[in-house]
Amino acid sequence: MTKTPWRPVATAYRRALVSQANPRMLLLTVIPFVLSVLLWAILLAYGFQPLLDYVQALFQDHDWFKTTSATLGTFGMSAVKTMIVPLIAMLLLLPLMIATSLIFMGVAAMPPITRHVAARHYSTLEAKNEGSFMAGLAINISTSLLFVVVWIATLPLYIVPPVAVLVQVVLWGALTTRVMVYDALEDYASADEMKEIRRRHRAQLTFIGIVSGFIGALPGIVWLGGAVISFVLFPFLAAISIWLYVLIFVFTALWFQYYCMQALADLRAARKTAPDGAAAPVDAGTLPPA
Known about the structure:
Elements: H1 7-20, H2 23-27, H3 30-61, H4 64-74, H5 84-108, H6 110-121, H7 133-153, H8 161-185, H9 191-200, H10 202-229, H11 234-273
């Protein structure tokens, strides 16, 4: 019986949820969280007030207070105008917070995640070891920098918040897909296999990234919303948001890891049965028992 190519997405999601509850996986959030909090404690202590002053000066020099006040009034958001400068500052910081959490997570947590998934379900899968730590780090940093630039460029869309959130969910999806597919396969897949998996499973991988993007939007909403209610809570909400980002990244990494490892196993099985060793069509619904 032909099975839907979307079944492995659901299976990988279920396995990721189960693995996320594993104490070892929860402990993986500690090092990225501590590193991120230490970094951001220093940055906020020495850099947040200068950033506020800079944004305040920009608004005064270009008479943006009047423009934003009128715009917010049009959308029934006049109450927000008193918080516009700190909100803009936090929106500028948010992509940097996401990017640093992702980089620390990739360095500290991704290798144990790969070993965990491989040991539980793919112990017989051959590791090609064609990837490298430095190549993975370069992809993490370059993609994160592009993500930050595009995020900041789309900030004017916050005039219509639902549109802005939707755009940034798509950005999050693109970020996690590019970074985590490489991280998931760097030890096991050859360059040819990785390229083939990206081509064959583009729709499913993009779906996983975008769903993760919706989940990943929640910490930012908590941070920004809580700060609007009480700016005193800003540092505490920042720490909570960082931990949530790391937790979400670990789950997302597990989801990508399970899906990509199964896709690699299916690809190799198909090539073994193909008469000339070429990549034959793969029944993506063929899965080992959970």
